[in-house]
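job 3f2a | input accepted
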Amino acid sequence: MAISEAGEPVAKVAPLRPKARRTGRGSLRGRIQLADDFDDLPDDVADAFGTRNPSGKAVKEDPQGR
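job 3f2a | predicted structure (66 res):
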């Protein structure tokens, strides 16, 4: 499909083709490690995003609202 402006083609719409072959879930198991404190925000980052509660601790938000 072509998109034209004033009768002149300006763009061509084509399906995307995947560039990388995807593997199944767990294909990186054992190859990636997360630090134990991965979810803890450093104080300067928490301050920059305004995610401190009145006690001064960073607030962890649960996307499920729990």
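job 3f2a | The mean pLDDT is 78.
job 3f2a | closed
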